[in-house]
Amino acid sequence: MNRSQIDCWLLTGATGLVGRFVLAELLRSGLLVAALVRDRAAAQAATRIEESLAPFETEVALLRPRPIVFDLTLPGLGVSEADRRWLKGKQLGVIHSAASIRFNASSPDDEPYLSNVVGTRNLLEFLKDFEVSCFHYVSTAYVTSRSVRADVADLPRQEVAVDFGATGGNDYETSKITSERLILDYAWLQSKTILRPSIIVGDSQTGYTSTFHGFYAPLQIAKQVVKLPGGNLLSGAWFRGQLGMKETDAKNFVPVDWVARAIARVALDDRLHGNIYHLTNPQPVASIDVQTAIVNALSEGNEAGRTTTEEPASIPANFREQLAVYESYFNNDPRFDCANTRRALPDLPCPRIDVDQLTRLGKFALKANFGWPKPTVNLPSYASAFERLTRAELVECGVGEVAESVQMHALGAGAPHPLRFAKISGHWQPTASNCPAKNDPVIIGAANDFACCINGMQTLAELVACGKLLCLCSPARGWPVVLEEFDSDLKRIILK
To answer: How many Cβ atoms sit within 10 Å of the Cβ of residue 85?
Structure first.
């Protein structure tokens, strides 16, 4: 794996389903990440990051990214000057996963075009001011599925650039086609990788998901229908017919944990850059199995499994409208070639999605009530201790000006992103890490332990001595001297 040129990963969509899984993968690798979060304030962005990472910390605490508030629809993304300074001078790797998944636009200026096309253009223009080593775009496999000649309609869709003039089956697919063409046409961006997942479902191990589209949409509608008079019909042909699906049709589902792992693996190995990858399942799920899984998930405690082909006695007024939105989405899927993905990731095959797996995913969604009410995670009380450090003015320095440097890696809820301190003019000062930091000594530990030191309750030396903080690598003068100086200078930084 070769990632030596990247100082920081810039990730959009970090609070979306795919984005939060990719974020966890990057942080597990100990990487510096800047997470672009669409929110109005840095404090709110930090809270959303905590909500995104909470499901991944049941056993192991993770590093934290630097949250950067942004808005894709604005020129310059609305990024603050402080965040711009922080990004300057770093070699950036970019993973763009932020997107609107609205299927039908009310106008060409509406979503999904506003985020997916205008937003992608704004991001690319924004990145011109920085040093970008590679750009990875999360698209969709369905950009290749609609506009094909009749004589090749039965052939697998290839991992190639979309044709000029291609259109999708809905506005979401069309917006992704336009975005792909836009990215490929940006000549200044030399390393461009496109990753095309098919229909994403929850975690293959836990069932966890934070969004409920795709497979979950008919499940949610079915939940409403089964409550209607005469609504015990879900094992029959009527409901499937409303989705426009034949019994022999198939859908291509991929679990989000596998998709994220594949994206991270490709991004972190520059030998794999510059290609188009179909992140698709070689074993699609037959529509009859999708139907069976919906029935199984709903059948606990009711009679949803009784077979009938009749429609319910009454149907909500918006029922057919909801189904119409997904009409093109639930057409029979084409076959997808994924030779590039197999060559790049021979040891990472896509998990099989069958009736039992879909049933488990459906039960998770029902138990979570399709994400409502939205679960909330509050920042721990000690998180405020880090605000004084993260808001401290960063000292700009060149390579020759730094005699020594140390990184602080706090783990878990409320932690700041990895911070770097340099010995400048006789004092340890926070720096923007614009100079090489690959082999810095590192102090690593739980966020609450670092907070105790910042609040003056204990010293770094005391926390290291009792094993609560770990020191990796050794500075030239040894840790005892550095820790004593560091403790003194932390107080000075905080009191500024």
So the answer is: 14
CA 252 to chain centre: 20
Alpha carbons 274 and 413: distance in angstroms, whole number: 35
Look at residues 11, 179, 22, 4 and name the one whose alpha carbon lies nearest to residue 95.
11
Per-residue model confidence (pLDDT) at position 309: 47
| Contact yes or no for 225/239 (Cβ under 8 A) | yes
Is the entire prediction scored with pTM above 0.90?
A: yes
Quote the tokens at residue 130.
């920085």
- pLDDT (mean) for 174-181: 96
Segment 39-52, tens digit of pLDDT: 777 778 999 999 99
> In degrees rounded to 5, what are phi and psi of residue 371?
80, 15
Q: Give pLDDT tens digits for 343-352.
A: 999 999 999 9
Residues ≥6 apart with Cβ < 8 Å to 374 = none
- Token pair belonging to 412: 């878990």
pLDDT at 238: 66
pLDDT at 147: 54
For 98-108, write each residue's pLDDT tens digit: 999 999 898 98
- Other C-beta atoms lying within 10 Å of the C-beta of residue 94: 27
Q: What value does the mean pLDDT take over residues 433-460?
A: 82
Q: Give residue 314's pLDDT.
A: 55
pLDDT digits (tens, 9 = 90+) for 276-314: 999 999 999 998 898 889 888 988 655 444 444 455 555
Give the separation between CA 34 and CA 133, rounded to whole angstroms. 15
**Edge-to-edge order in the sheet of strand 405-411:** 427-431, 419-424, 405-411, 442-446, 469-472
